[in-house]
Design brief:
Blueprint (H helix, E strand, L loop, with lengths): L1 H17 L4 E4 L2 H8 L5 E6 L5 E4 L10 E3 L6 H7 L7 E4 L6 H10 L4 E4 L1 H9 L3 H18 L12 H14 L18 E5 L36 E6 L12 E4 L5 H20 L6 H14 L15 E5 L6 E6 L11 E4 L2 E4 L3 E4 L2 E6 L2 E4 L8 E2 L1
Parallel strand pairs: 1-5, 3-4, 5-6, 9-17
Antiparallel strand pairs: 1-2, 2-3, 7-8, 8-9, 10-11, 10-12, 12-15, 13-14, 15-16
Helix pairs in contact: 1-5, 8-9
Length: 385
């Protein structure tokens, strides 16, 4: 892992140079996991041209020359000065990932420094995965697929959507899922994923998910609502794939009884979109073009009014994925990010047919020179439960 750490550190420093930062101070759980390979209390101080220093707060213990024990962040300036480091002129703090009160406290710690946004630096560093990270996600995807192969056996006639989801969650945990879906942003909340049956798929959620659902309580208004799954409904399963600190995102659909003609057509259109993007999406392609191509295919199929929602539409067909479910980039029409090799993307062209429910497929991919490699290679057919 030493070489892996150096590779990740070089990516952070490259992003720091682009942002004209002399140092970043990392304290969020997700970014400490990215840099240190585990979760503990503390901060990692990264100068652009010197060795990083890991300041750990008990019960964690320092290990090595470039780590130190602290009780509070106010000790950091004196400790970096003892190591012969200059106080940075411009330091990045994680505006998107730490509480406002902690940001303000850290501003005072670096009172003589200009404070800038370090969250963008870390997002940029994590945008392109290392080979080790891709391997973690490839392993995660295979375990995710193994769980989906058992979904049929979780179903019993007359179940509610919530009962069905709980049975799938049980299988996930028994197969080693960590049971925690890490998402970016304080306004994105979900449990172990989402299961949408029938008309509940057309109910909007306040969260920026591709499909909503009412949920079972106003405190978590997303996903399964407790309705009984009846013939004529589709059932969309979009459940957690987090087994090793990384995540894959995968959606498959089933029907209760026979699927109607429009449902079958929408589901096949989703698969057609994925096949098109799998060969089209290569390094150098603008991410916004992925959305535009998908929207054109849906329009040519006469399905635009159902594409990415019906009563409540979203303007994207996917997103980056990795340590967090919703990483950069966002695959929306106005996004101009250029694809790079080893970016990992969840692509989810979905449709909502009124009264029937949600249809479509979502896979997690890694960008390669030859197109997209599918990390969630599980049967995409629309089958009856």
């Amino acid at each position: 892992m030493v070489n892996e750490f150096e590779l990740r550190l070089s990516k952070v420093r490259m992003a720091m140079t682009e942002a004209r930062l002399d140092a970043v101070l990392v304290g969020s759980t997700v970014n400490l996991f990215y840099l240190a390979g585990g979760v503990c209390r503390g901060y990692m101080y990264i100068p652009v041209d010197r060795e990083p220093v890991f300041f750990v707060i008990p019960p964690a213990e320092p290990a090595g020359e470039f780590s130190a024990r602290i009780r509070k962040p106010e000790q950091i300036p004196d400790l970096i000065a003892e190591k012969g480091y200059d106080i940075p002129a411009r330091v990045g703090l994680e505006f998107d990932d730490l509480y406002y009160s902690e940001i303000e406290r850290l501003r005072k710690v670096f009172a003589s420094s200009e404070i800038a946004d370090g969250s963008r630096v870390m997002r940029r560093a994590r945008l392109v995965k290392t080979p080790y990270e891709v391997d973690r996600m490839r392993e995660d995807g295979l375990r995710h697929c193994a769980v989906y192969s058992r979904i049929d056996s979780c179903y019993r006639e007359g179940m509610t959507d919530l009962e069905f989801q709980i049975e799938i969650e049980h299988v996930l945990r028994m197969e080693g899922c960590l049971g925690f879906l890490r998402v970016a942003g304080s306004r994105m909340e979900i449990n172990m994923g989402s299961l949408l049956a029938g008309p509940n798929a057309d109910v909007p959620s306040p969260y920026d998910f591709s499909m909503g659902g009412a949920g079972v309580d106003p405190s978590l208004p997303v996903g399964a609502s407790g309705i009984i799954m009846k013939p004529g409904m589709s059932v969309m399963v979009d459940m957690n794939g987090g087994f090793n600190g990384y995540q894959t995102d995968m959606t498959r659909c089933w029907t209760v009884g026979e699927a109607g003609e429009k449902a079958l057509r929408a589901h096949e259109c989703s698969r057609e979109i994925l096949r098109d993007l799998e060969s089209f999406a290569r390094p150098g392609v603008e991410t916004g073009e992925l959305y535009r191509r998908a929207a054109r295919i849906a329009e040519e199929a006469g399905l635009s009014s159902y594409f990415m929602g019906h009563s409540n539409k979203v303007a994207f067909i996917g997103h980056g994925v990795g340590i967090e479910l919703n990483e950069a980039p966002v695959l929306m029409g106005r996004d101009r990010t250029l694809l790079e090799e080893n970016m990992t993307l969840a692509i989810e062209p979905k449709f909502v047919i009124p009264e029937v429910g949600a249809l479509g497929v979502e896979n997690t991919y890694v960008v390669t020179d030859g197109g997209l490699e599918n990390l969630t290679p599980f049967n995409e057919n629309l089958a009856a439960l």
